[in-house]
Amino acid sequence: MHNNETHKVPTMADGRKDASEPTGPIEHVIIVGAGLGGLRSAQQLRQIGYCGRISLVGAEMHLPYDRPPLSKQLLAGEWEPDRVYLTDAEALTSLGIEVYLGKPAVALRPGEVELTDGTVLRGGAIVLATGAAARTLPGQPEHVFCVRNLDDSLRLRAALRDAKSLLVVGAGFIGAEVASTALGRGMDVTILEAQPVPLSRVLGERVGHMCARLIRESGVDLRTGVSITRFVDARDCPVSVELADGSLVKADVAVVGIGGKLNLDWIGDIGIDVSGGLLCDSAGRVLGLENVWALGDIASWRDETYGAHQRQEHWTAATEQAGAVARSIVGAEPPSATTPYVWSDQFGYKIQVIGRPDLADSLTTLHGEGLSGGPIRSTIIGYFRTGELIGVAGFSAARRFSSYRPLLLKRAGLDQVRQFAAASDNAAPEATIYDI
Q1: Taking a C-beta distance cutoff of 8 angstroms, is the pair 130, 107 a contact?
Q2: 35 and 67 in contact (C-beta within 8 Å)?
Q3: pLDDT of the chain along its 436 residues, tens only?
Q4: 357 and 306 in contact (C-beta within 8 Å)?
Q5: DSSP letter string over 402-432?
Q6: What is the spatial distance between Cα 18 and Cα 137, in angstroms, rounded to a whole number?
Q7: Which element (helix H / strand E) includes 304?
Q8: Is the pTM of this model over 0.85?
Q9: Chain-centre distance for alpha carbon 235
Q10: Structural domains of the chain in order of their starting residue, each with its CATH number
Q11: Please, is 241 exposed, middle or buried when counting C-beta atoms within 10 Å of its C-beta (0-12, 13-18, 19+)?
């Protein structure tokens, strides 16, 4: 279900197509990136009463689709592609949204965006939501997969159909989810992780050890603290990699999941440093650029709660930021402050994280025994900074996990959080406070 039609536009003297109109500052909003964040920005603009022109530019030929199922339901074959689409052409038309699919943006200039076919869109507001591309390893062969978009997932699904073994490079959320899906298909799975423990940057080393145990106890051969020297041509198997110690790891199929590379090369030299993402205020306005907003993976928003800038590369962040950007563009009251939230479904567990564990200086167990070597299921970890609750991580403890949101929002102290935990079942005894 694709929409590749665009409006006919006149041609400029230099041969480029002119898709602009001589309108006021916000009579045309150009949204670059037709993923979740871009789509929700357009929808939110209409929902709050914006009646001007909206153009939605997408590099892919696909209509906007949901990415979390790509490493789970779609990859497993439980869903077909039609279930991941977030909208259809008719719905976009009914909202008066002009869609430019398969036409990546190639240049950003004040008040205008140029597309790969020469079309130039001019408007009073530009929203950048181009996301990230998959990072690859040096010398990575073409038959080694990444899972960043719909086509990636479908190609990998086809490759797994007759495979008996899978090698995954990277034990982050995506890598673990792909490994979990393959394990569910009865495959032998090996994960190679360069760090000593998975997810240490997100959850800290101690909880990372618990995540490593979860992966291993599920039946995956997880090898941590290893590095790949090169890919080796091998006649006896499709994929072979050499590790730094000289050993070889072989598999029928391999997937690399080592993070993303921000899709910002296309914007060229715009006079600001974009190496760490686009620096934005708390409403998504790009600092140093006029009438430009950014959201999603490429945007580093000012976090007014904790006084720092942060890139939030998660589904919920894209949705919430889209609402804030839309309201900022039309000058409406900003939405209520939210707190970062991410989840991952893997190996029969739902891992949920809320707040900023990355800023914590200590942590403790609130429920369960996972951190002390006991069952991981139903474990909840509290993260603190200077004695105040700053983050919570839960492992298949959804109902109880949600009850900590109010305490997190008011940055409750350690004693109050412990009292709250003690009042419910499965509370951890006076658990050790660990420094991070």
Answers
A1: no
A2: yes
A3: 334 333 333 333 344 444 443 334 589 999 999 999 999 999 999 999 999 999 999 999 999 999 999 999 999 999 999 999 999 999 999 999 999 999 999 999 999 999 999 999 999 999 999 999 999 999 999 999 999 999 999 999 999 999 999 999 999 999 999 999 999 999 999 999 999 999 999 999 999 999 999 999 999 999 999 999 999 987 788 999 999 999 999 999 999 999 999 999 999 888 898 989 999 999 999 999 999 999 999 999 998 887 788 898 889 999 999 999 999 999 999 988 788 999 999 999 999 999 999 999 999 999 999 999 999 999 999 999 999 999 999 999 999 999 999 999 999 999 999 999 999 877 887 778 998 8
A4: no
A5: HTTHHHHHTT-BHHHHHHHHHTSTTB-SSPP
A6: 40
A7: none
A8: yes
A9: 37
A10: 17-131+263-330 (3.50.50.60), 135-258 (3.50.50.60), 348-435 (3.30.390.30)
A11: buried
How far apart CA 11 and CA 28 sit, in angstroms, is 19
Rounded Cα distance, 168 and 420, in Å? 40
